[in-house]
Specification:
The complex is a heterodimer of chains A (about 240) and B (about 170). Chain A is mostly helical. In chain A, about 70% of the residues lie in helices and about 0% in strands. With about 170 residues, chain B is mainly α. Chain B is built from 7 helices and no strands. Classes of the chains: A mainly alpha (about 240), B mainly alpha (about 170). Chain A: It holds the Pfam family TPR_19.
Chain lengths: ~240, ~170
Amino acid sequence: MSTFNDIARYAEGEMNADERSAFEVALLADESLRNQLALYQEVHGSLQQHFGADEQRDQLQNTLQSMRGEFFGAATQPARVVPMKRYLRGAVAVAAILIAVIVIWQPWKPDLFKEFSETSMVAPAERGDAADDLLEQAVEAFNKKEYATAATLLQQVKQQDTANSTINFYYGVALLQTDKLKEARDIFNRLFAAQSAFKFEAAFYQALGYLKEGNKVACKEWLQKIPADANEYNRAQRLLQQL
Amino acid sequence: MVREIYAKYAGKIRYYILANNGTEDDAADIFQEALIDIYNQAQHKQLQLTCPFEPFLLLICKRKWLNLLKKRGREPVTKDAADVSIGEDVFALAEQMKQSDQRMQVFLQCFEKLGDACKEIIKKCLGGEDQELIATQLKVTYGYLRKKKSECMAALTKMIHSQLSE
C-alpha cells in the first residue's frame, strides 16, 4: 500500500520538499514506479472526466434526444392481422368519422401557453447533503406542477448556489408559472445574456412570458432569437406558426 | 451538424439493428450512445479520426449492439449492414476506442468497490467543485479532506493496478 500512498501524495502535492526529491530520485531509477504513477494520473484524469460537468456533452445529449423522434420511430410492435367481422365494420366506420371530426374540431385545444410551457426538472444526482435535500424537494414540487412551492424552494437553493444556470432556469420557469412575470423576466434576461447552457431555453420561456400577457409582438421577437441549431428551435417554430 | 449526422446515418443504423432482432428504440439508443462515446473519446482521449466517419460509426454501433445482444443472452445473428467497406484503419480505431472503454469500465468497477466515504470524496473532488467548499459541506477540515482524497485515490489505484495485471 505504501507505494500507492506515496504516489498519491506525490501527485496531489502532499509531500514536503525532502520527500518530494527523494521520490523523484526513486522515480528515475524505478520503471515500475513510473508506470504506477502514470496509471494514477490516468485514473485521476478519467474519473475527472467522468464525474466532472461537461456542458458541451450535456448539450449534445439534449440535441440527440430531441431529434431522436424525428429519425427513429416509436417502439414498434410487429403488426398483427386480425380478420374484421362484418358487423364490426359499420361501427368502426362511425367511430372513424367521429374521431376525424373531433381531431379537426379539437374541442380540447388548450391555450398556447399551456401547450408550450410543459417542462420537467431532472432530479439531481444523489449526494445527500442538506442543500441537495432542498433541491430534491424542489424538483419533486416542480414536477408535480406545484410551482409556488417549487419557486420558494428553488429560491433557497439559489441562495447557496447563485451561479448555477440549471437552478436559475427552473426558478424562472416556476416564477413564470406563478404569474411573477417581472421576476421571471429578469432571470431569463440574465440567462440569455450569459453563455449558459440554458441560453435559448431562457429565450423560449421569455417568449412564453410575453405570450401569457398577450404581447404577441414581443413573443415573436424572442422566438426569432432562437437559432436553427438550438434545442428549442423546433418548438419555437411551431409556436411561431400558431401565432 | 447533429441533424446532418442523424439524416445521413440514422437510416443505416436503424436498418442494421432492425434486421438483427432489435426495435426502433434499441436503434435510437445505440445511435445516441455511439455518438456520445465518440464525443468523449475525441474530447478527452485525443481520438483522431484517421479513417472515413461512416464505416467507423457503423462499426461502433454494430459492436455495441452485439454486446447488448450478448448481455440479453441472445445469440447474435449477423445480417450485415449494407454496402460499407471496412478497412484496416477503421478496425484499428474502433479497437483503440474499445480498449479505452474497457479500461474505463475497470476503473468504475473498482471505484464502486470503495467505501461510501471514499466514493463521496472522490466524486466531489474530481467533479470540479471547490475543495474548500467540499470540506465545509462534509464538515471536515480542508487538510483532512486532502489527506483523505490522497488515501482514497491510492486505494483505488492499487485496486485497479492489481485488477489490470491479473
